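YM 10:42: Glycosyltransferase family 39 protein sequence, as discussed on the call
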Amino acid sequence: MTRENITNQEFESRASNFVLRKKLWFTVLLFLIALTVEVLYFRSYGTGYFISPDGLHYSNIAENFLHGNGLVNTANFVQGDDGVIREVAQTREYVVGPVYPMLLAIIYGIFGMMNFKMVILVLHSVLGAASAVFAYKTGELLFSKGYAWIPYCLTLGYPLFAFWGMYVLTEATYVFTITLFLYLLARYAKEVDRPKLKTLLLLGAAMGVSNLVRPLLLLYFPVLGIWIWWAKGWNLKMALRDFAVIVVMTVVVMSPWWIRNGIKYHQFIAVSNYGSYEFYLGNNPLTITDQYFYFAQPSYDPQVKARIEKLPIPEQEKEYKQLAVSYIVQHPILFLQRTFAKEKDLFWQPVPTLGGAYKIKGVLLDKWYLLLGLVGAFLSLFTLKKYSFLLLFIVYYSFIVSMITVVDGARYRLPVMPGMILLGSLVLVIAIKGIGKLTGANRRTGRRL
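YM 10:58: structure's back
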């Protein structure tokens, strides 16, 4: 090798390292800007945090973990009509995904037990800022670097992300994992002809971690498999190879939790040991579907509930699941009608501002985010190869949540919003490009005149 070749290689290596360092510092700057915005938003509220029975439930598990008792639940909490949360006698142990309780345990280990304020200011603000950074990175892949600021700013500006980040709940963590998941899907879509093994492994790991926060991506694998097959030009062999790597990595990430649950409870628990009651609540003849976010409803037979609650917990879950499935099988058309009605109420209309139910700063922006996202969903149909993964995720997630239960609170549609924000960004990108072309055409006309 000549001295000239060696010099060229050294120059290229230094140039490559410089580019990498520049990208790293730029990413750090993006994160710090987003973190500042998150903290300022949280500090703008008069209170340091919001707490609910679910939040205390996760906190109880984190405390037990730090005390050496493992990830177990030893207390139940309820919120009375007066708004006061009280501890009640434990009637069952609720098993939940381990990711959020362990994150709480880290914060408690550093800042002290039940330091909810630092959960918000440290954990949730960091996750919110990281979500904005991944929104930027996804925007780079979909729209180019010059337009990546659009999903970054829209993510930071969405009021429901920040508001539910004030709660000691899984929302900030789950939105982060979904944002990461969509970024990795966008990477895979860009590399689909020759995907990197690293991308496949990271995508499987992201799905596994997201399921260990909330298990709603467990049913996504058939959808993902069909999409990969389509993206591969119906090449079954290549699609199966990629899909298998993703599934195996997901199993690797989730299997320690499965093994732990099998040893401790002598049964297979994929993520959590509850949910069948809500499945039954959302799928029986008494379900109400014409009221917005209506949860406290008499949508179950009290006699059936009284009978089932006498059974052991695993049998209760099995019985509720069987009743819900039986209802769906016997009334398929009514099931679809009610599911779409619940989906419309929960996912496709803005959060109500009347009655004081939501004290969210900037809540009026919600309807514009929804409108942008829906317009973007329509426009993406003309470039389906590029944006199909976003459409499939949004359709899947909104349908699955609406199918399973009747839920209250806009927090249940938060995981759809990273996809909606990216589609809404598409609208703004097209508009900005159109204005640029029109302005350029006018300038050229003016020069000719």
